[in-house]
Structure prediction request, 604 residues.
Amino acid sequence: MGLLVVGSVAFDSVETPFGKAEDALGGSATFFSTSASYFTDVSLVAVVGDDFPEKHINFLKTRKIDLKGLQRTEGKTFRWKGKYGYDLNEAHTLSTELNVFESFKPKIPAEYKDAEVVFLANIDPDLQRDVLGQVKKPKIVAADTMNFWIEGKRDSLIKTLKLVDILLINDSEARQLSGEPNLVKAARKIAAYGPKTIVIKRGEHGVLMFHKESVFSAPAMPLEDVFDPTGAGDTFGGGFMGYLSSVMDWSENNMRKAIIMGSVMASFNVEDFSLNRIKNLEYSEIEARYREFKKLAHFEDI
Amino acid sequence: MGLLVVGSVAFDSVETPFGKAEDALGGSATFFSTSASYFTDVSLVAVVGDDFPEKHINFLKTRKIDLKGLQRTEGKTFRWKGKYGYDLNEAHTLSTELNVFESFKPKIPAEYKDAEVVFLANIDPDLQRDVLGQVKKPKIVAADTMNFWIEGKRDSLIKTLKLVDILLINDSEARQLSGEPNLVKAARKIAAYGPKTIVIKRGEHGVLMFHKESVFSAPAMPLEDVFDPTGAGDTFGGGFMGYLSSVMDWSENNMRKAIIMGSVMASFNVEDFSLNRIKNLEYSEIEARYREFKKLAHFEDI
Prediction:
């Protein structure tokens, strides 16, 4: 079976210099699974409140995302409010209401227990390990995290990292986690915690992948209109892991292709609010954008 | 004949978290011409004071840089003092003593007047135009500038840009010059001032080249030890223009190779203080680093 993701489903209210969206569909698992759904079968484990409308469920179903693991409990769905200035690399959180997410206990449905690929989106590292305790023997475990856990639950996070093959992380978080301002040294230090592959997301500056002794630098697509960067990192993760899961080939060459595929998906996502741009892509659009990345980065031997 | 560069020769005192250098050889024309000298014949026009030691002259001669245009006048050589924190992308200027550079009037020796390629390093845009008045009919004019002139001599700079084919500029300066936070829009606006090619230097995030309808994103080499970023931009410029001048082929493909060659030279330069690392390179080291850039950026078609 395909790709299992555990994370958040949320309502985002976002303001950027180009407009705003109120209570739009968001959350790490939502962006991730929508993006990954273009490449592979995805099963989503998350929690929503009783205010979560049927239309969002229906949308996720149109993407053929398996929702057996989507718990509905009494209360309100997780809500995040944020604002971006012209420097779209940095979100300013205005408010976070965890609501039902606060007592989220991921319960992996029996059908998902033999998942071969697991993505632990940015949730409490205790819960991330709890998920790994519930699945049998995944071939690949990838995870994301954030400054909140690096500061508040460092020991638990380090324990989780021992079990993780691929870590996806922002540049500032990589520096914070390792205590190293230099990203090459930061990646080496993080690799010593467990993950064989460190994928460092740098927003508009692209992605660095450290994998054994090799380094891959992927560009970001220079876009004229970036409307809303919310979810770009998770959309990247979905394209990256979705593509890898579809081919189940973890060679260096293929990981690099997957990094570009993630970048392709993220480049679409930032062109509109919420999931509006990645809701309904044609696969031919994805392939065409991949070829644009090829052109963008191409240079000849001397 | 080869490449003519007009700019500054200076003493730099630099402090970084990794050490310091006092009154070391620096200046835009020095870094540029040393870097370019690995690829083509370079003629340098600049001014130094009577405190400029013979050993530096001798060094520039070992690089076969033509110094007929290096004026020596009474007084002290230009001095810059700066400091970098762990974020090596940004220099904090501690002091600038223009000294003899304050009354610099570039005088192009008769032998240089038919220069085919001219690089106007970061000097007063009035002087940049004055230089262009003294040369006959260069095939290519490239220029650099900085925030100081964008703020203080905007109108003069815009006049200079009309005469420039290739502008090399930092990302923050591109934003400042165009009034556009988005770099794609910024490049388009700057192109409307004159330059057909806009090369945006982003420090550790690499380089973007906008050339007609195409965009090229070049990575920077992720280095474990960056000792001193002083001169990286000019060293980049020297590799870029030096390589182009050596082949006199301004096709898109070749411009891209030149961008990588500039990035190669800059990646060496930051590994040590002043010009220490690029003083004495073997061409085989340059080619090997170019191949490392190839590996760094390579990914396959899907």
In short: Chain B has a mean pLDDT of 96.
